[in-house]
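Training component of the fellowship. As part of building independent skills, the fellow (R.M.) carried out the full modelling exercise for a liganded target. The chosen ligand was zinc ion. The inputs are recorded below so that the supervisory panel can assess the work.
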Amino acid sequence: MKIKEYAFLIRTQTDNKGIESLRMKQNRFVRAISLLIQFAVRNGFEITFGDAHAKNGHMTDSLHYSRLAIDLNIFKGGIYLKHGSDYEVLGHYWEKLGGSWGGRFGDGCHFSLAHDGRR
Ligand SMILES: [Zn+2]
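Fellow's submitted model of the complex:
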């Protein structure tokens, strides 16, 4: 699955002033996550959802509060993968989509779109 073929799914939308609103970015996040999930499935991973939007339970200023992050439970062959290094390929793909991968800071299951200096 070539990212180029799906560029329309991760294209940044802007208003008439060239600004990507938070809602537009939240929507881009969902579109990009759909690609990540398909990529994971095609590569033999099984995914279940962890927290996406949350009202509490995450660090201060977490992107979960802004609908720009999701935690995924990732399995292969029925085995839960505890370490980001076990599914680094997903993190790298996510970064190619323009995302920020928590595997860079010890939270491999966390996939987000950086916003206002947060990731
Ligand atoms: Zn998270």
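The panel noted the following from the submitted structure. Residues 3-112 form a domain with the Muramoyl-pentapeptide Carboxypeptidase; domain 2 fold (CATH 3.30.1380.10). Residues 64, 69, 71, 110 surround zinc ion (CB under 6 Å).
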